[in-house]
Amino acid sequence: MLVLNKLLLVLSVVPMALSYPFFPPTCYSKALRMAQDLTQMAADLKIGYETGHCMAHMPDLYLDIHNACVMYKMRAYISLVEDLRLRRCAYTREVRKLEVTLRQLFIIMGEKCHGDLVFTIYDCAALERPYNRY
Q1: In Å, how far from its chain's centre is CA 11?
Q2: Contact 29, 116 (CB under 8 A)
Q3: How far apart, in whole angstroms, are the C-alpha atoms of residue 101 and residue 97?
Q4: Which Pfam families is this protein grouped with (predicted)?
Q5: DSSP 8-state symbol, 70
Q6: Cis peptide, bond prior to residue 21, ω within 30 of zero
Q7: Which of 18, 102, 94, 90 lies closest to 65, judged by CA?
Q8: Within 10 A of 106 (CB to CB), how many other CB atoms are there?
């Protein structure tokens, strides 16, 4: 009976350990992760084989969700990506994914996480530099 109890205990603990993290991501952690991914995705598109020629004129995208100017920066970048439709690279899957994910982050930060996010700085020039506070 003792062996059976220990076996049941182990069988109940193992699935909990495998389902780490135990808590679902918060709105803040989701926005932070998406901003990091978008920054990397935009950098990869600028040097990509299929998209490098179209994305070369695009400004670098550095998203810091602690900066109050990030909403303006995202809105401007979304407009620039939408204007790429005149060029062939706008129809690649990667550019479309960048546009859709950037729009999702804009909606999440503007509507879903509105009360959860706190902007600690208001420095629009900081979003032009590659230094991030992650």
Answers
A1: 36
A2: no
A3: 6
A4: CYTL1 (PF15153)
A5: H
A6: yes
A7: 102
A8: 16
Q: Cα–Cα distance between 73 and 18 in angstroms, integer? A: 39
* Helix, strand, coil share (%) of the chain residues, nearest 5: 65, 0, 35
pLDDT digits (tens, 9 = 90+) for 89-98: 767 888 889 9
How many other C-beta atoms can be found within 10 angstroms of the C-beta atom of residue 29?
Answer: 13
Specify the amino acid at residue 24.
P
**Which amino acid would we find at residue 56?**
A
Is the pLDDT at 37 greater than 60? The verdict is yes
Q: And the tokens for 132?
A: 């991030």
3-state secondary structure of 24: coil
User: What's the chain's Rg over C-alpha atoms?
Assistant: 20
The residue assigned the tokens 């790429």 is 84
Give the Cα separation of 11 and 87 in Å (integer). Answer: 56
Residue 62 has pLDDT above 70, yes or no: yes
Tokens of 101: 């994910």
- pTM of this structure: 0.74
The answer to whether 108 and 31 are in contact (CB under 8 A) is yes
